[in-house]
Fold each of these.
Amino acid sequence: MKKAFVCLFVFPASVASAHAAQWYTGSLVSPSGTTTKGVLNVEPYFSYSQPLGSFGPHGTTLPATHPMQRMFSNSTLWKYGIFKDFSIQVHTVVNYGWKHGDGHSHGPKTGDVPVDLIYRLVRPDAKRYIPAFNLFVGMIFPTGDYNKLGDKQDGVGSGAYVFRTALTEQSTYTLPGNHELRLRVWNWFRRAVTSAKLVDTTGYGTAHGFRGRGQPGMSGQSGFSLEYGLSQKWLLAMDIARDWSNGSTLRGHDAEGKYIHKIGSAGTDWQIAPAFEYNWNANWGIIAGSAFYFAGHNKSIQVSPQFAINAMF
């Protein structure tokens, strides 16, 4: 979970490769690059989303409406290094949502599954002040329920194949006191390449008797993260990111035969996600923090406490 984003940092300290003794888990929001050849990286996230209100069409803050949408999520990244500069990543998501007095999921629901190929375009070279650059190219597969729903809360998918790509940067700086500061900058872009056949109650907000098609709008995310090493095991992390999305397109006929053609409102939001990292060793770590949404338009305002365990095998 956005347009172009440029960020420049200048440090009086020398630029260096990551300190050999520094251990990382990675921040809450930022995508990581390739992993070591033959290594499986597994990182399960557990989060809870609590709405606090919404941003109106002109960015004004509106109070939360009842019933409020709540959700527990498990989001797990599975990444494997195929070659030195080439990895594959699969992202599985399981959600359980509810609104008080207005329905709930019929058990945990598996969402759409992104599969990405990651290629390291540029290897880092600290002596020449060159950071690592990675290219992500992938597809989101429509595995989540979206059609003929027993309850609106069961709608966790889009029903469409969605192409996505990202360019990421990562660099590490050695600050006074031999503390490491790792910077990541990224930009995601997503576009649906198919539409979904819609029947009855769907994740697009249709009701019983509807027949038609729907397609999610283009979307993306840009941001940067900082991870500051307090010690070998402990780090402070922070992400700042901007999300953007165009409205979904809906075409079809309702139960009375009336033709419907709707395009949803576009929206944006800004989020900040502070966190603590703790690493038992170079292969195992945990991160805990929360995402907060502090600006935007046509988007909900949420707080999302979460934690993740990062493991290398």
Note: Residues 40-312 form a domain with the Lipocalin fold (CATH 2.40.128.130).
Amino acid sequence: MAFIQREIVVHARAETVWDALRDIGAIHTRLAPGFVTDVQLEEGGEARVVTFGSGFSVRELIIDVSDAARRVAWTVVGSPLFTHHSASAQVFPVGPHSCRFVWTADFLPHAMAPSAIATMDQFLAVMKVTLERTERENNSAHPSV
């Protein structure tokens, strides 16, 4: 099974990043707008269909949203690309105004690794810009923060 772990430092409070990550139906507006163009929640929030800018969609079952660990875990189901895919993303405070975002994925077939790495890296780049902009906007709206 292939394993990928990507980490990125985001210059935003861990609370800001966690609030966006835990909002599992808003990836397309709060984490990676444009890269993800739509998210449809299903089954009372237990599953979502994520549509990417390329038009490709995946269905993900939400395994866990843990406020205590600031972690979301999910698995892709019914994909023609993966025979197995599970992933999680977690937020760790680094300082008062920055955090580390860690995304791991386990999947089969191994041959999907280059594509998965490219997708994760592109997503993280858009996410970093989006969350840092959100943090700046929040700080300018509330200068005492």
Note: The longest strand covers residues 84-95.
Amino acid sequence: MQQPYIVPPCHEQVEILFEDDFLLLINKPSGLLSVPGRLPQNKDCMITRIQQDYPTATVAHRLDLDTSGLMMVPLCRDVHADLTRQFQRKEINKTYTAVLWGDLTEDGSIDLPIACDWERRPRQKICYDNGKQSLTHYEILQRHGDRTRVLLKPVTGRSHQLRIHSREIGHPILGCDLYAHEEALNAAPRLMLHATTLEFTHPLSGERFNWHCPPSF
């Protein structure tokens, strides 16, 4: 098990893309935690920053520290509960943009079960004995030499699913410090993974939202 990690300060700001009395849509920068870490030094995070101006804000879902992109932030208990139910019923659709190592030849799917790698936490592992079913579809957007930009479409939401699935097909995400080989890790200044689209039903208005937030990379 790894020793607790002190997160370097993140100087980028959380960008608010949409706001009403019940809900925020934000763009989380890479390098910022979604929620506070265990160590006192890791208290800076998306939700503590948001709560400075929106004290009732809560966390409906999370993005990894190094993943940037779209997040929903409920501003009241009823909205939080409704979004949780939408997640449980798989009524919320998310896609991610990623840059992978290597040249993918065609679109495809990755269906591999994932379990916690307890001896090397926070890493996950592919495990056929007691892993949870995990499915990711991917679509090629652009090829450039030995790099491929893809749109990742997770059907399930396992921890580190997109990172480990990409690694398992031989195309790790550039800049991934947990699953990429050294050359792929050093090929980018950050994890090249961004939550790009988010489709859900607004809990109060009933309007179907489909937001798009392009990556900076």
Note: The chain has a mean pLDDT of 96.
Amino acid sequence: MKFTAEQIAGILEGEVVGNPDTEVSTLSKIEEGIEGALTFLANPKYTPYIYTTKASITIVNNTFQPEHAINTTLIKVNDAYKAFSTLLEFYNSAKMNKVGVEQPSFIAESSKHGDNIYIGAFSYIGENVTIGDNVKIYPNTYVGDNVSIGNDTVLFSGAKIYSETVIGNNCVINSGCVIGADGFGFAPNESGEYDKVPQIGNVVLEDFVDIGAGTSIDRATLGSTIIRRGVKLDNQIQIAHNVEVGKNTVIAAQTGIAGSTKIGENCQIGGQVGIVGHITIGNNVKIQAQSGINKSIKDGEILQGSPAFAIGDFSKSYVHFKNLPKIVKQLNEIEKK
């Protein structure tokens, strides 16, 4: 798929400086540009590369004025970084614009779907499934009974969507995700063994939720495990039964959240964070990577450590911890004297 500088400028509402008929068919970093590639310059420290890049077209800010001769055609825009991101979305949409039902695949007769859908080979669509418009379900994907999938949602290869799950509009579920598996519910019996507690709830993903590869979200024991609008989850995250994650919260890889914990809106949670169950985390909370959260957190707190506490206190304490061997040595010398 090829685009000219004039076509790209039209999409970005930019101005072409150079040959408007210059064509590109791929994307690249500015320092790795090749003929036929489109790149961008947003960070000033990469400015020297614009004079040596072999990329055919470069998106730059309106304020950019070359100090030496350049070979690349320029497209000037208000914000080069934002414009390139917009173009990446456009390119990705065009690349992923598959339509139709591939065979072999199984689609239950009781299921319903909207227009312009794609269902890849070896996919399974269960009874009473509802699929919206423009949904893309890539090969080897399982969608259980009574699942609802909103418009413009994408399920990548190997995703497993258990029964009763509700998925909103414009969601992205990456490969290897397991949505709606049983929560970790077991009760000890008189013999010391564990009996399974039936998990009869479901998982609800609201609109614009992105879920990274290998992430698991367990169904509720009763009611719903809920991921609110705009939440972004990284790879290999575990979210247990009856958890609720507030809108626009972002969580990095390998974080684990135990059952029935409620996380507020606009939180930022780093990688490898462990959060105990049955607590409440407020809005606008920031938790640094590898922290352990064992109690409820108020709005706006910034925490680090395991168990976690205020980041300012953590930083001061860490200075003393680093010096602990020296301090112990000094104490020993004082004792000897």
Note: The domain at 3-95 is CATH 3.40.1390.10 (Udp-n-acetylmuramoylalanyl-d-glutamate--2,6- Diaminopimelate Ligase; Chain: A, domain 1).
